[in-house]
Design a protein that fits this description.
Low-confidence stretches: 564-570
Helix content: 25-40%
Radius of gyration: 25 Å
CATH architecture of the largest domain: 3-Layer(aba) Sandwich
Strand content: 15-25%
Oligomer: single chain
CATH superfamily of the largest domain: Thiamin diphosphate (ThDP)-binding fold, Pyr/PP domains
Mean pLDDT: 94
EC number: 4.1.2.63
Organism: Brassica napus (Rape)
Number of helices: 22
Distance between the termini: 87 Å
Protein name: 2-hydroxyacyl-CoA lyase
Subunit structure: Homotetramer.
GO biological process, one term: fatty acid alpha-oxidation
Number of strands: 19
Structural class: alpha/beta
Number of domains: 3
CATH class of the largest domain: Alpha Beta
């Protein structure tokens, strides 16, 4: 009998070619929800050494992919099914767009021959993602896959990072190609290279001149500087010049919150009185009051460092420098080193900032020193702060989500290392918590992950505690349980009327809900705490174990207040 094997060279399908392309381009992790037509893609990716983290919901998986991109500097990959899976994934893609983090969403789609005929989960997905995608590609033939994968990965991380989209029709995933030809196509695509714009020497000189001549200079930095890994350069700049600094919420930790030149506890004074503000990797959006009076002085001169020329044109600063934060700050340091200047501790501006920060810090500590039971927000937050600071080794990654919980946590929790705080971000997105936890756990495997969540924020993605248990991730989720959004029923008697007045208030949940029991159902550890000693014991045990856990902290339902924007009172 003739052997036909030599006449039939081995072949692979589109699923395997996608996996090979991703692996070749350096992808090591994927997040998603599988189903028709992408289950085989996830399986093939795992076989090639890519870790696939399977979620219950594409929203959480998308939030994880976006945060992974921020934490690692490499595009996070989200895999979804077609139609509704793609739509659910838009939560993550839009989050990457809003926060300018690199991410690629890959979705299966219907057979090309059936497009427009009402096929299973049919949707024009290229059109659906348009508002949030820097680049959208559709592989129309199996041979197009490697180039499509390369283009979306490269675009996601180039210039201002953001989300990109890759559409994979079912028929393309089923198509076969000779393996040797597939390997040749993969070998020809370029590996991921981050695009960096160089600042002009004249811009660097002008920026240094403005800082040198300023009477009340301030350095502001945000998560763009954190993404750029600019912490060493910023530390050198602050120590060279003696200029006070102010991080945005996710810029916290680039320099320790405890640094003597930190203006965080004197924020209102710092931004209200500074005459020159060097803003590095932070946008002058609502988080920074648009850089406008009355929060800022009407005469302040902004020096804005951003990777996006469009952002600088939008804000119209006194001086704009287009470039990577790490690179630009390094150039500023070099220019200052040739002709150094330093404000010094006795400089009136530095003294004023230090005095105000010290006064506000002392006021906060007086409030935190009280053990209030039933718990308000401050007492458990102080205990959590102290427990996190006591962790030996690398600082835990803190995920903060909620209204009052996040606001109080931003003021109380202390960040000592870069990229160790993840919160609702530029969009103020609720529901990111568990996805961010999972991303942090896989991106930073040497760190404990501690989520400090409001009960409302936790509810968006609570089912993902099963994912924590399934992958045995070192995540402790602390839920501030005050019975609802802002704290249960806050209606006045006059507001309780109408035919449905017996229904619960729109803001209220089941009182004293047993959130800790949810993780116990899957084999994780749950705690319910109502006193300082109970909370301390739960944190000590769970932090030491570094296993999936939920700590259900019962809060006085009347302790919180309605919150939506950052309320800075210092």
């Amino acid at each position: 009998m003739a052997d036909d094997s030599a006449a039939t060279p081995p072949s692979i399908d589109g699923n395997t070619l996608v996996a090979k392309s991703l692996s070749h381009l350096g992808v090591t992790h994927m997040f998603g929800v599988v189903g028709i037509p992408v289950t085989s893609l996830a399986t093939r990716a795992m076989a090639l050494g890519i870790r696939f983290i399977a979620f219950h919901n594409e929203q959480s998986a998308g939030y994880a992919a976006s945060a992974y991109g921020y934490l690692t500097g490499k595009p996070g990959i989200l895999l979804t099914v077609s139609g509704p899976g793609c739509v659910h994934g838009l939560a993550g893609l839009s989050n990457a767009w809003a926060n300018t983090w690199p991410m690629v969403m890959i979705s299966g789609s219907c057979d090309q021959r059936d497009a427009g005929r009402g096929d299973f989960q049919e949707l024009d997905q290229i059109e659906a993602v348009k508002a949030f995608s820097k680049l959208s590609e559709k592989a129309r033939d199996v041979r197009e896959i490697p180039n499509c994968v390369s283009r979306v990965l490269n675009r996601a991380g180039s210039g201002r990072p953001g989300g990109c989209y890759l559409d994979l029709p079912s028929d393309v995933l089923r198509q076969r190609i000779v393996e040797s030809e597939a390997d040749d196509l993969v070998a020809k695509v370029g590996t991921f290279n981050e695009h960096v714009t160089s600042a002009r020497a004249s811009e660097i000189e002008s920026a240094v001149t403005l800082l040198r001549k300023a009477e009340r200079p301030l350095i502001v930095f945000g998560k763009g500087a954190a993404y750029s890994r600019a912490e060493d350069e910023l530390k050198k700049l602050v120590e060279l010049t003696g200029i006070p600094f102010l991080p945005t919420p996710m810029g916290k930790g680039l320099l320790p919150d405890t640094h003597e030149l930190s203006a965080t506890a004197a924020r209102s004074l710092a931004i209200g009185k500074c005459d020159v503000a060097l803003v590095v990797g932070a946008r002058l959006n609502w988080l920074l009051h648009f850089g406008e009076a009355p929060k800022w002085s009407k005469d302040v001169n902004f020096v804005l460092v951003d990777v996006s020329e469009e952002e600088i044109e939008l804000r119209k600063p006194r001086l704009g420098i287009v470039g990577d934060a790490k690179t630009v700050v390094g150039l500023l340091n070099r220019e200052i080193k040739d002709d150094p200047f330093c404000l010094g501790k006795t400089n009136p501006w530095v003294e004023a900032i230090s005095k105000k920060a010290r006064e506000n810090g002392e006021k906060m500590e007086l409030q935190l020193a009280k053990d209030v039971v039933p718990f308000n927000f401050l007492t458990p937050m102080r205990i959590i702060r102290d427990a996190i600071l006591a962790v030996e080794g690398p600082s835990p990654v803190v995920v903060s989500e909620g209204a009052n919980t996040m606001d109080v946590g931003r003021s109380v929790l202390v960040q000592r290392e870069p990229r160790t705080r993840l919160d609702a971000g530029t969009w103020g997105t609720m529901g990111v918590g568990l996805g961010y936890c999972i991303a942090a756990a896989v991106a930073c495997p040497d760190r404990l992950v501690v989520a400090v969540e409001g009960d409302s924020g936790f509810g968006f993605s609570a089912m993902e505690v099963e994912t924590l248990v399934r992958y045995n991730l070192p995540v402790v989720v602390i839920v501030f349980n005050n019975g609802g959004v802002y704290g249960g029923d806050r209606r006045s008697p006059e507001e309780i009327s109408g035919p449905h007045k017996e229904d619960p208030a729109p803001t209220s949940f089941v009182p004293n809900a047993g959130y800790h029991k949810l993780i116990e159902a899957f084999g994780g550890k749950g705690y319910i705490v109502e006193t300082p000693d109970e909370l301390k014991a739960a944190l000590s045990e769970s932090f030491a174990a570094r296993k999936p856990a939920v700590v259900n902290v019962i809060i006085d339902p009347f302790a919180g207040a309605e919150s939506g924007r950052l309320q800075h009172k210092n």
